[in-house]
């Protein structure tokens, strides 16, 4: 007998227990040029995407100084400043750029200071609501990076602090210095390497923000996704996003796109109600990393 019990899917989450955002957000990486380098091919469409984000009720946008570099943050301000009162803009520092698809790590406090000051200027903000360390730098003592984050939070330049691509031990180390409110790791229905980190974040009431939530190059080969999508009259991409929303109540989604049409399709994923049976079907996609 089929189990059609609908799985819990809360519509909002409070980052740091005080910034309430809708769990379907927007990732502003792909509004830049090819290879996340330089300006977008169609700037007008990129600006339309950002304006449509707000029109659709999305109030969480994730970006980084390295997207472009600088381009994504500049476009966000051009399209949306002055910002709606409830809009939360999260940005990141810790990666530099030397060319298309090239991302050297630099989490030295001197670099992070310049990156943060640049983000504040480009976004026209006095304080970043959520500032995320883009990567732990193997060339810089982690403690030095964490001391910097602690300092800028004390200075009032940053409200909340998050991390990216970290394991549980690294999160716990950071918690000795600051309150960590979010973790952004690669995670999707067919990439589950960070299950322990997701569980830790849920237990700690931290947001878990999956990047690359849709493995577009692989998704057409995932038969369970297609079966569930057909049942809900949706696309496999939409079901992959919906699965994340149903997987854990602390997951915030930031699918990115440079097209208004794709943005609207992504947002529809939030209205898909998956059942226990659907979730068991999709669990078949889990594989060892």
TrEMBL record:
Keywords: Oxidoreductase. GO terms for molecular function: oxidoreductase activity. One of its GO terms (cellular component) is cytoplasm. Signal peptide: none annotated. Residues 23-286 form the NADP-dependent oxidoreductase domain. Pfam families: Aldo_ket_red. It comes from the Bacteria. This is Aldo/keto reductase. It comes from Pontibacter mangrovi.
């Amino acid at each position: 007998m089929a189990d059609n019990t609908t799985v819990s899917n809360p519509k909002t989450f409070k980052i740091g227990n005080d910034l309430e955002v809708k769990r379907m957000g927007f990732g502003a990486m792909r509004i830049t040029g090819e290879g996340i380098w330089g300006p977008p091919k169609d700037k007008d469409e990129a600006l339309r995407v950002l304006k449509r984000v707000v029109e659709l009720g999305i109030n969480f946008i994730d970006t980084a100084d390295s997207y472009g570099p600088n381009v994504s943050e500049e476009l966000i301000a051009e399209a949306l400043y002055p910002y709606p009162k409830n809009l939360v803009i999260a940005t990141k520092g810790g990666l530099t750029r030397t060319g298309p698809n090239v991302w050297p790590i630099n989490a030295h406090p001197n670099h992070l200071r310049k990156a943060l000051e640049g983000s504040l200027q480009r976004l026209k903000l006095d304080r970043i609501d959520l500032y995320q360390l883009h990567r732990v730098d193997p060339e810089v003592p982690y403690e030095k990076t964490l001391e910097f984050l602690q300092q800028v939070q004390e200075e009032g330049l940053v409200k909340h602090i998050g991390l990216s691509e970290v394991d549980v031990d690294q999160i716990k180390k950071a918690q000795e210095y600051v309150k960590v409110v979010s973790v952004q790791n690669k995670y999707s229905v067919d990439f589950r390497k960070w299950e322990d980190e997701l569980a830790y974040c849920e237990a700690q009431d931290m947001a878990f923000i999956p990047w690359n939530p849709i493995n577009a190059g692989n998704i057409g080969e995932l038969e369970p996704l297609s079966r569930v999508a057909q049942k809900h009259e949706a696309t496999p991409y939409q079901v992959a996003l919906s699965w994340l929303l149903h997987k854990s109540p602390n997951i915030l989604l930031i699918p990115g796109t440079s097209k208004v049409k794709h943005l609207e399709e992504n947002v529809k994923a939030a209205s898909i109600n998956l059942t226990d049976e659907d979730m068991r079907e999709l669990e078949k996609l889990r594989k060892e990393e």
